[in-house]
Specification:
This protein is mainly alpha-helical. The chain folds into 2 domains: 168 residues, no CATH class; 52 residues, no CATH class. It is built from 12 helices and 6 strands. The strands form 3 sheets. Strands 1-2 form a two-stranded parallel ribbon. Strand 3 and strand 4 form a beta hairpin. Helix 2 packs parallel to helix 8 and helix 11 runs antiparallel to helix 12. Pfam families: TPR_9 (PF13371), Transglut_core2 (PF13369).
Length: 268
Amino acid sequence: MKPRQACLACLEDTPAALLQAALWIAAEHDPSVDPDACQAVFQNMQHTISIHLPMIGVTELAQPLLRQLNALGFQQDEYLPLRPHAALMNHVLTRRRGQPLALAILALEFAQRLSIPLEGVAFPGHFLLRVPGADHLLDPCGGRRLYPNDCRELLVRQYGPGTALSAEHLRPASAMQMLQRLSRNLRQLHTSNDAPLAALIDAERVMQLGPAQVGDYLARANLYRQLDCPHAERFDLEHALLLTQDPVQRLVLSERLGQLPSINRLIH
């Protein structure tokens, strides 16, 4: 089974094998990655964490779990410019540095194995965690509790003043949504690190993992443009044009489509 197929198959498990799927994404970029060997490393960490967790109810163990991860050295990767290693799970396991989403995936896997209730929250710009029913969220990078005012401040830091917090920002994320977001992160990281072919692999996976947004088609169109594939670029620009409701963006896309070579169609 190819890595992409193996990744998608992990989503069919109940519950979804989230970490294993993320490791197969890494294997898609590096054939030397062995997801089973990475899982063995993870298993050893699980034993270390479990013996250091306090003897309290499982609903109270999410924050201690995140603090134990931090004690093992897992932190947000702040190396600039950020490299794809920050979102490739094999490197996150060995370097103990990663983006918030990558650290959250590890925490969610530990929580599942230790029967600790925990869910992902697709907060924009900085993935978060939550114990179902709790009045606060948790930062996967250390376990800090975040209440509504903290979330507003985090949103403003990410997107600037005037950005309002909404219920949409606090919705739980499914395993498929998390993998799609991970793929978007990798697409961006590979693009910014001048690896368009690797970014194209991620861009295609984004399309397979759920409904594509205008930005997904535009990102892939830009990669096709960089790789000199005008017909594929046209396909994605046309789909972006169908999806967007922004009149300015529609005008820009129409002009860009007009600059591409026309497709010669054969009549039979």
